[in-house]
Amino acid sequence: MIYSYELEKQLLAALIKKPENYFEISAFINEKDFYSEDNSLNKTIFTIVRQALEAHEEIDDVIIAQRVQNLGISFDDVVNVAEYVKSLGMRKVADGSLIKTAKELKKYTIRREIFESSQNIAKKMKTLPAESSYSEIISVADKEYNSRINQYEVGNDTPENIYDEM
């Protein structure tokens, strides 16, 4: 599937080490950006960190690990949640890398959304009646695609001088 555990871990590490920067990415990063078919540990950690930050609580790796363990969720590939969270806090995080990491992670989410939309379109195309018109076929595909993809803003990733044309 389309995901990057390394980007997920790096984003979590940046949030644990520099929680004051969370609100720079809070508008466009959410739980859906943390993907796993088998293990939802990174998604769970992000949810706990986000809730703590939005409640203006201090971030501490021991408290995060304890909250994860209190949920009673078992994570097969991670033996010790406390050690995993502690290792995230010890990762090297460059100043100013949070937004860049978040944008890179969001690219994976968008690719997953397009992939899943394409699969849904394929299923719908198989079930459309043979006598469907061109416009009906296109409308079904367009509706499925746009319902998932239009939520992402298409535009320039770099700052623009809005006064240039004045």
General description of the model:
This protein is an all-alpha fold and 166 residues long. It is built from six helices and no strands. Helix 1 packs across helix 4 (81-90). The radius of gyration is 20 Å and the shape is globular.
Tags for this model:
166 residues; mainly alpha
Which residues sit in consecutive blocks of at least 5 with pLDDT less than 50? none
Form type: globular
Largest sheet geometry: none
- Helix and strand composition category: mainly alpha
Q: What string gives the helices and strands in order?
A: HHHHHH
Q: How large a portion of the residues is in β-strands, by DSSP E?
A: under 5%
Number of strands: 0
Rg result: 20 Å
Distance between the termini: 46 Å
Helix content: 55-70%
Q: How many H/I helices? A: 6
Mean pLDDT across residues: 87
Topology:
Elements: H1 5-17, H2 41-54, H3 61-70, H4 81-90, H5 97-127, H6 134-149
Helix pairs in contact: 1-2, 1-4, 1-5, 2-3, 3-4, 5-6
Task: Give a brief description.
The protein has 166 residues and is mainly alpha-helical.
